[in-house]
Amino acid sequence: MSNRRDYYRDPDAPKANALVPGGSALIVDRTGAILMQRRADSGNWSLPGGTMEIGETLEQCVVRDTKEETGLDIEITGLLGIYTDPEHVIAYSGGEVRQEFNVTSYAQVIGGELAISDESTDVRFLRPEQLRDEPVHETVRLRLRHHAERRAQPYLG
Question: I want to staple 126 with a disulfide (CB 3.0 to 4.6 A). Which of 22, 53, 63, 130 is the partner?
């Protein structure tokens, strides 16, 4: 796994040289807690997900990455939003600098057992107030705010 650094609204950020479609799952349990993983590369709490591979749909990508990262089997149930902010870039140690491109879907657990992976140091359902003082990237906080707003339409931005 390569090292990464997130830049957000940073005038000194490197210029993006790649656009890689990815997706995340926003999964809420019956108590209102949200499935989060603590990323091994940044230490931030984040939604499970990843980038598409050739030959798969975005839905398959989100289902696959969520299984790999959390041990849970899921199904997609809706769309929270499409997040493509050019002011969020991620620089990787190999020289790639990606502009954010993430489609965040609502999903529900249909099987599996919660487990960490080599990409995470912790995986659990956390209530929004538990995340208030935890390290969470601002772009993930935006998605959590959109979820809390119970938006009638998916976010496009």
Answer: 130
